[in-house]
């Protein structure tokens, strides 16, 4: 027979699946001998039964009855007993804490009949009525579904009538009046009376907790966080202790360290003569926890010693709720505390130094996402700008610019070199150009999956969204913030994408000390505890990692930064930029060439330029591998825009002017190369196979550059990568050409130039035929961006702004597949290619060069697949290094 109810003595902290987080930790504290009020937990299994069958399991009623009976015996009074009522709280608590679950109901068991008894027993009629009106409001709102504002408004009216500043000024008569009023509200709104039977109250509250599992907010949250929908929640029934019994009582929250910055020492808030949520509800100003030291020294000392015990026990920062009832301390909750990114790093190493955890564990206590947060520039403290509003921190960073209210204006000003912040009520695909042009984006509507948020994150652009206090009026080109502050077009504003704050005026931006450390401008010498912590943890991560981390870098500047940021090679050096700018003309000549001679001339002109580029990059990465990708993008990207050119030629023809030299021929070529679907067109290896001499040119430039570096005593390590291969035959042709050139250069220069030749796996067919392709490839590098696009059949540029936010809202995606690798789909292709590639060529080198190489979750996946390296943009390197280390430690 299943047991549906556990006494606190029967549980422990490892039973979160069954007892939920809150219940498991209450049991743990009980068994540690800490002063926890007696109580019991109804398991998630009972909830699952209820959800599956629409009613409580038969045995539940009796089991609750038995545990209630035990509780009553321990407390020496019965639930709701008229002359001395036992009261309880009913608290939801799932395995993961979740928004949208039912709020706690306190003081259950109290009724018209037992209020006088409670008044007599406590010696305080005011307290009894205060407890009753709280029960009525909480029960009315959360269990019976009455609009909570009705109760709040009534309290406000009562305070006003009495000229009272806060709830403490309300006397017994006021509170009694409120209780009567609340009962009327409940009757009016629900068509029934507030249930007076204590057990009925309890059962209704328990059922309401079960029901809240399927509340709309909870369901949405679970879909987004990928929390299974069928876990169910536990319900905790806890004997009440009272913080509202007078000034010798109170309630508070505490952290064992400062969760904001990681400083050692206690941190928290306390409120005298108060109950439950009053502390966080802001009904009165709280006192800092240290004030308790003088209000009630023995209780304070006891609290401190319990906090130390808890920290030692949980070996981490603890977050605590407590209540003091007439000088007696009670523990009501503890859990591992949430903390800021900076605090996470600092606390992890503090715990190591205090002997509580190992460095391996410290590594698991921080995340790449936290490190990424520490790497954004921030607003300097003490700036003089006014904070005018608060929104959601949708995409981190600190951005300053002139306010603009439409996309066109944003583009216009940005083109003139003026930084702008685009302010919109909400954005849509028409705002895309403006978002690209702006330093940052601010919206007054929409959450973290809104269009603005999704697109800004995709671009790595600072974004604050859902700043609802701001009234955006695009027609009048202004926004009105609370207090009537008006932001006109052209006014400078600053937005903080990490905190969601909006400022009028320019807030100075300072670089992140963590980036300064990676750049080598700051050393970990004890002067900045955060930098020290990051240094120690990164060093440990590098030692633990099995997956190497390379950088995607196309220029010497990027290559140099990559080295500073700890890259052990370049995993992707794109060669596109080597064909742009001034050199574009040469490419044009190559494409338009009329016969081999002209083409050869264009190639010959490009050769020394490319060679120079490679010499610079190989020099910067001396001794480390550099993977050079042969030209990838469609040809039309190197030619003038079709529409523009057509108009130019058309206008000239119509006005009878002579068409400019070459324009006519160019137009023919541009028309010929125009593609409906360039992403799936003539690009990558297809280009190399179509344009004679292109592969040879690039390989020659690479090989000659390597020979030059070798001649100077350097140690260049080349890997030549062929993009967009779908069939081994494509690769074979290119490889043959490449090997021939390598040989020629070796003969000409007398330097034996070695290079690995491999391919990107980015077309699904390549993954599916990886066994064959490995026959011609010495390495695979997974181009997960294209692999994602082609697996899903959508192009990132098009879909991210058009329907991704809808997909996220609907829960079809938990996260964009461009941010984090889609393991179920794209991941299977990668897995398949890894297995077949290795089977065909055991020594094959395997890496990833898509942006996923810098995404924490994806890094863990690649680690598990046993890849050799991931490659990501230089700024993501520290994140990837940290996660590679974490993946190795978590794997042990
Ligand atoms: P949440 O998960 O929202 O924090 P809790 O169940 O912890 O909800 O309860 C809300 C508030 O009520 C907290 O301040 C908690 O300490 C307080 N509380 C809960 N149970 C009791 C109890 N039995 N006696 C006194 N206060 C309680
Ligand atoms: Mg709580
Ligand atoms: Mg690609």
TrEMBL record:
<feature type="binding site">
    <location>
        <position position="762"/>
    </location>
    <ligand>
        <name>substrate</name>
    </ligand>
</feature>
<feature type="binding site">
    <location>
        <position position="785"/>
    </location>
    <ligand>
        <name>substrate</name>
    </ligand>
</feature>
<dbReference type="InterPro" id="IPR008279">
    <property type="entry name" value="PEP-util_enz_mobile_dom"/>
</dbReference>
<keyword id="KW-0067">ATP-binding</keyword>
<keyword id="KW-0418">Kinase</keyword>
<feature type="binding site">
    <location>
        <position position="786"/>
    </location>
    <ligand>
        <name>substrate</name>
    </ligand>
</feature>
<dbReference type="InterPro" id="IPR015813">
    <property type="entry name" value="Pyrv/PenolPyrv_kinase-like_dom"/>
</dbReference>
<feature type="active site" description="Tele-phosphohistidine intermediate">
    <location>
        <position position="451"/>
    </location>
</feature>
<keyword id="KW-0460">Magnesium</keyword>
<dbReference type="InterPro" id="IPR000121">
    <property type="entry name" value="PEP_util_C"/>
</dbReference>
<dbReference type="Pfam" id="PF01326">
    <property type="entry name" value="PPDK_N"/>
</dbReference>
<dbReference type="Pfam" id="PF02896">
    <property type="entry name" value="PEP-utilizers_C"/>
</dbReference>
<keyword id="KW-0547">Nucleotide-binding</keyword>
<keyword id="KW-0479">Metal-binding</keyword>
<keyword id="KW-0670">Pyruvate</keyword>
<protein>
    <recommendedName>
        <fullName>Pyruvate, phosphate dikinase</fullName>
        <ecNumber>2.7.9.1</ecNumber>
    </recommendedName>
</protein>
<dbReference type="InterPro" id="IPR036637">
    <property type="entry name" value="Phosphohistidine_dom_sf"/>
</dbReference>
<dbReference type="InterPro" id="IPR018274">
    <property type="entry name" value="PEP_util_AS"/>
</dbReference>
<dbReference type="InterPro" id="IPR013815">
    <property type="entry name" value="ATP_grasp_subdomain_1"/>
</dbReference>
<dbReference type="GO" id="GO:0016301">
    <property type="term" value="F:kinase activity"/>
</dbReference>
<feature type="domain" description="Pyruvate phosphate dikinase AMP/ATP-binding">
    <location>
        <begin position="301"/>
        <end position="342"/>
    </location>
</feature>
<feature type="binding site">
    <location>
        <position position="762"/>
    </location>
    <ligand>
        <name>Mg(2+)</name>
    </ligand>
</feature>
<dbReference type="InterPro" id="IPR010121">
    <property type="entry name" value="Pyruvate_phosphate_dikinase"/>
</dbReference>
<feature type="binding site">
    <location>
        <position position="629"/>
    </location>
    <ligand>
        <name>substrate</name>
    </ligand>
</feature>
<keyword id="KW-0808">Transferase</keyword>
<dbReference type="GO" id="GO:0046872">
    <property type="term" value="F:metal ion binding"/>
</dbReference>
<dbReference type="Pfam" id="PF00391">
    <property type="entry name" value="PEP-utilizers"/>
</dbReference>
<feature type="binding site">
    <location>
        <position position="783"/>
    </location>
    <ligand>
        <name>substrate</name>
    </ligand>
</feature>
<dbReference type="InterPro" id="IPR002192">
    <property type="entry name" value="PPDK_AMP/ATP-bd"/>
</dbReference>
<dbReference type="GO" id="GO:0005524">
    <property type="term" value="F:ATP binding"/>
</dbReference>
<comment type="similarity">
    <text>Belongs to the PEP-utilizing enzyme family.</text>
</comment>
<feature type="binding site">
    <location>
        <position position="784"/>
    </location>
    <ligand>
        <name>substrate</name>
    </ligand>
</feature>
<dbReference type="InterPro" id="IPR040442">
    <property type="entry name" value="Pyrv_kinase-like_dom_sf"/>
</dbReference>
<dbReference type="GO" id="GO:0050242">
    <property type="term" value="F:pyruvate, phosphate dikinase activity"/>
</dbReference>
<feature type="domain" description="Pyruvate phosphate dikinase AMP/ATP-binding">
    <location>
        <begin position="61"/>
        <end position="285"/>
    </location>
</feature>
<feature type="domain" description="PEP-utilising enzyme C-terminal">
    <location>
        <begin position="537"/>
        <end position="885"/>
    </location>
</feature>
<feature type="domain" description="PEP-utilising enzyme mobile">
    <location>
        <begin position="419"/>
        <end position="500"/>
    </location>
</feature>
<feature type="binding site">
    <location>
        <position position="574"/>
    </location>
    <ligand>
        <name>substrate</name>
    </ligand>
</feature>
<feature type="binding site">
    <location>
        <position position="786"/>
    </location>
    <ligand>
        <name>Mg(2+)</name>
    </ligand>
</feature>
<feature type="active site" description="Proton donor">
    <location>
        <position position="849"/>
    </location>
</feature>
């Amino acid at each position: 027979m299943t047991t549906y109810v556990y006494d606190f003595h029967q549980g422990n902290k490892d039973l979160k699946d069954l007892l939920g987080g809150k219940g498991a930790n209450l049991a743990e504290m009980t068994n540690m001998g800490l002063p926890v009020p007696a109580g019991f937990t109804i398991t998630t299994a009972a909830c699952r039964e209820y959800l599956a069958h629409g009613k409580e399991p038969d045995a539940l009623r009796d089991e609750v009855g038995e545990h209630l009976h035990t509780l009553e015996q321990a407390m020496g009074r019965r639930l709701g007993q008229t002359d001395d009522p036992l009261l309880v709280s009913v608290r939801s608590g799932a395995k993961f804490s979740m928004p949208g679950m039912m709020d706690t109901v306190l003081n259950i068991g109290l009724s018209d009949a037992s209020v006088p008894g409670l008044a007599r027993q406590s010696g305080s009629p005011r307290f009894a009525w205060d407890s009753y009106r709280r029960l009525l409001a909480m029960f009315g709102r959360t269990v019976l579904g009455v609009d909570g504002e009705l109760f709040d408004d009534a309290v406000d009216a009562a305070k006003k009538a009495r000229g009272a500043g806060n709830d403490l000024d309300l006397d017994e008569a006021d509170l009694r009046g409120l209780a009567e009023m609340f009962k009327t509200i409940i009757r009016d709104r629900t068509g029934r009376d507030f249930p007076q039977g204590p057990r009925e109250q309890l059962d209704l509250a328990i059922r309401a907790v079960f029901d809240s599992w399927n509340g709309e907010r909870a369901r949405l949250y679970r879909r987004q966080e990928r929390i299974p929908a069928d876990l169910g929640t536990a319900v905790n029934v806890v004997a009440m202790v009272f913080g509202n019994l007078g000034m010798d009582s109170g309630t508070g929250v505490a952290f064992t360290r400062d969760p904001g910055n990681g400083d050692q020492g206690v941190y928290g808030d306390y409120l005298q003569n108060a109950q439950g949520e009053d502390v966080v509800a802001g009904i009165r100003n709280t006192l800092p926890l240290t004030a308790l030291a003088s209000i009630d020294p023995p209780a304070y000392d006891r609290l401190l010693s319990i906090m130390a015990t808890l920290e030692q026990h949980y070996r981490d920062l603890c977050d605590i709720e407590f209540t003091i009832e007439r000088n007696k301390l009670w523990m009501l909750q503890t859990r591992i505390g949430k903390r800021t990114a900076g605090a996470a790093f600092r606390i992890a190493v503090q715990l190591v130094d205090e002997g509580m955890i190992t460095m391996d564990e410290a590594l698991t206590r921080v995340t790449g996402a936290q490190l990424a947060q520490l790497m954004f520039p921030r607003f300097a403290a003490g700036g003089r700008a006014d904070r005018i509003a608060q929104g959601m921190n949708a995409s981190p960073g600190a951005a300053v610019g002139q306010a603009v209210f439409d996309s066109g204006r944003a583009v216009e000003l940005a083109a003139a070199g003026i930084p702008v912040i685009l302010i919109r009520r909400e954005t849509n695909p028409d705002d895309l150009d403006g978002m690209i042009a702006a330093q940052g984006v601010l919206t007054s509507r929409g959450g973290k999956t809104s269009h603005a948020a999704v697109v800004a994150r995709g671009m790595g652009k600072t974004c604050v969204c859902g700043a609802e206090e701001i009234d955006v009026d695009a027609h009048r080109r202004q926004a009105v913030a609370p207090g009537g502050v008006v932001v006109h077009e052209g006014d400078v504003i600053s937005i903080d994408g990490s905190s969601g704050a909006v400022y009028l005026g320019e807030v100075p931006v300072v670089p992140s000390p963590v980036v300064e450390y990676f750049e080598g401008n700051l050393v970990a010498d004890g002067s900045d505890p955060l930098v020290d912590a990051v240094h120690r943890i990164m060093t440990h991560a590098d030692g633990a990692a099995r997956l190497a981390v390379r950088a995607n870098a196309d220029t010497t500047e990027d290559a140099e930064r990559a080295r500073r940021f700890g890259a052990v090679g370049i995993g992707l050096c794109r060669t596109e930029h080597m064909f742009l700018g001034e050199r574009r003309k040469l490419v044009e000549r190559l494409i338009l060439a009329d016969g081999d001679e002209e083409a050869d001339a264009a190639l010959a002109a490009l050769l020394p330029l490319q060679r120079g580029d490679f010499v610079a990059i190989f020099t910067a990465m001396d001794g480390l591998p550099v993977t050079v990708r042969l030209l990838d993008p469609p040809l039309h990207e190197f030619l003038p825009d079709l529409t523009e050119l057509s108009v130019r030629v058309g206008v000239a023809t119509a006005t009878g002017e002579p068409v400019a030299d070459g324009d006519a021929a160019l137009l023919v070529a541009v028309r010929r190369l125009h593609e409906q679907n360039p992403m799936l067109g003539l690009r990558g290896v297809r280009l190399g196979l179509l344009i004679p001499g292109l592969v040879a040119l690039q390989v020659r430039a690479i090989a000659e550059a390597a020979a030059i570096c070798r001649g100077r005593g350097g140690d260049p390590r080349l890997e030549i990568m062929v993009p967009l291969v779908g069939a081994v035959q494509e690769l074979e042709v290119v490889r043959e050409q490449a090997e021939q050139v390598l040989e020629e250069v070796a003969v000409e220069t007398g330097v034996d130039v070695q290079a690995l030749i491999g391919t990107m796996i980015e077309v699904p067919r390549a993954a599916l035929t990886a066994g064959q392709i490995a026959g011609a490839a010495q390495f695979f590098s997974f181009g997960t961006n294209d692999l994602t696009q082609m697996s899903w059949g959508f192009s990132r540029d098009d879909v991210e702004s058009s329907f991704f936010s809808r997909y996220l809202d609907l829960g079809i995606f938990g996260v964009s597949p461009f941010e984090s690798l889609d393991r179920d789909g794209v991941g299977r292709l990668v897995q398949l290619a890894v297995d077949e590639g290795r089977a065909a060529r055991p020594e094959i080198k395997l890496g990833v060069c898509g942006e996923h190489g810098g995404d924490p979750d994806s890094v863990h996946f690649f680690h598990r697949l046993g890849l050799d390296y991931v490659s990501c943009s230089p700024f993501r390197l520290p994140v990837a290094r940290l996660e590679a280390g974490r993946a190795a430690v978590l794997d042990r």
